[in-house]
Design a protein that fits this description.
Order of helices and strands: EEEEEE
Number of helices: 0
Zinc finger (C4-type): 9-31
Radius of gyration: 11 Å
CATH architecture: Single Sheet
GO cellular component, one term: ribonucleoprotein complex
Organism: Candidatus Methanodesulfokora washburnensis
InterPro entries: Ribosomal_eS27, Ribosomal_eS27_Zn-bd_dom_sf, Ribosomal_zn-bd
Shape: flat
Structural class: mainly beta
Distance between the termini: 13 Å
Number of strands: 6
Number of domains: 1
Helix content: under 10%
Largest sheet: 3 strands, antiparallel
CATH class: Mainly Beta
Cofactor: Zn(2+)
CATH superfamily: Ribosomal protein S27
Strand order of the largest sheet: 2-1-6
């Protein structure tokens, strides 16, 4: 199931929202650190996830 994550950059602490199945490398908008890399399905998240949007809790 796809969703969005709010992640915190390990280098500068900036928070931004990224897609769980990102098809391109996602970088921090402040310091250019890699936050997520595509893996053919769910992206490999390299930052701390602080919140998950759209995850159903049933």
């Amino acid at each position: 199931m796809s969703c969005f994550y709010r992640v915190r950059c390990p280098s500068c602490g900036n928070e931004q929202i990224i897609y769980s199945h990102a098809s391109t490398t996602v970088r921090c908008q402040i310091c250019d650190e890699i936050l997520a890399e595509p893996r053919g399905g769910r992206a490999k998240i390299k930052a701390q996830i602080t919140y998950i949007y759209g995850k159903k809790t049933s």
